[in-house]
From TrEMBL:
This is ABC transporter permease. The keyword Transport applies. The keyword rRNA-binding does not apply. Residues 41-257 form the ABC transmembrane type-1 domain. Belongs to the binding-protein-dependent transport system permease family. InterPro entries: MetI-like (IPR000515), MetI-like_sf (IPR035906), UgpAE/MalFG_permease (IPR050809). Its main location: membrane. It comes from the Bacteria. The chain crosses the membrane at residues 12-32, 44-66, 86-103, 182-200, 235-261. It is found in: Cell membrane. Keywords: Cell membrane, Membrane, Transmembrane, Transmembrane helix, Transport. PANTHER family: BLL4140 PROTEIN (PTHR43227:SF11).
Length: 270
């Protein structure tokens, strides 16, 4: 469909599809030369990079912190509370954020209470706040679930290594840096490769639900862009070309990062 000028006016789908004119890379050229390309790619890459950094570091820190908790009951409560947002629909989560970040929401009231601001901040009406807000929302929703993988890897570490580190005079922080993190390295690298592969796959729900006409210059990413042109403007071939471009770049990213990881130290990981 990305290589034809599809128009659903020729009868059923198959007659419309095979009866459409073949245009080659015309839709791709139209996208690359359009004024929206730079804006959409900027929003996609910046918000994805922020989410990648936060969503990669925070689960590791959370897993390390939970591993240091000795009270098992408290540890289970914190762990359960941290990964519960993963199972909440983005429709519910987005409404929670809209209520908290509104001009008269709890966040503005708290900022005014501590004296950080005197006026209400329109978080969702000004685009400059959007990247940070959506990255924080993604991290909040995913961090608890992702930390389970690191906790499972930490639990498989031989306790004798920690005992040997104690004999050498290592404290808790030194044990983390000298024992835990080096042994987590294979898990960290593999999950990083998987995360980089999703660099352009920002998601649709959170951007569609938190975005609006006032912050569109910062909230419009490849997924919402292709949705708007494909389903709302009925430019099916153009939206297909945008989606195919995203998939192709994502494949190249996974292939490139995988090749780099193999070159750096592949024998212990792959």
């Amino acid at each position: 469909m990305a290589f034809v000028d599809y128009k659903p006016t020729l009868g059923n789908f198959w007659s419309s599809f095979f009866g459409s004119k073949f245009v080659g890379f015309e839709w791709f050229t139209y996208f690359f030369n359009g004024s929206d390309f730079k804006i959409v790619m900027r929003n996609t890459l910046v918000s994805s990079a922020l989410t990648l950094v936060l969503g990669f570091i925070v689960p590791i820190l959370l897993a390390l912190a939970l591993n240091e908790v000795k009270n098992q009951a408290f540890k289970r409560v914190v762990q359960t509370a941290s990964y519960m947002p993963y199972f909440i629909s983005w429709v519910i989560a987005a409404n929670i954020f809209v209520a908290l970040l509104s001009s008269e929401g709890a966040v503005n009231e708290l900022l005014q209470l501590v004296g950080l601001t005197k006026d209400n901040i329109p978080f969702l009406q000004e685009g400059k706040y959007f990247w940070g807000l959506v990255s924080g929302a993604n991290t909040w929703k995913e961090m608890g679930y992702n930390s389970i993988i690191y906790l499972a890897a930490i639990s498989s570490i031989n306790p004798d290594l920690y005992e040997a580190a104690k004999v050498d005079g290592a404290g808790r922080l030194k044990q983390i840096t000298a024992v835990t993190l080096p042994l987590l390295r294979p898990t960290i690298v593999i999950l990083l490769i998987l995360s980089v592969g999703n660099l352009l796959n920002t998601g649709f729900d959170q951007y569609y639900l938190l975005g609006n006409s006032l912050n569109r210059d910062y909230s419009d990413v490849l997924d919402t862009y292709s949705f708007r042109y494909g389903l709302q403007n009925s430019m099916f071939s153009y939206a297909s070309a945008v989606g195919l471009f995203k998939s192709a770049v994502a494949f190249l990213l996974v292939f490139g990062v995988n090749a780099i990881a193999r070159r750096m130290n592949s024998n212990s990981l792959f």
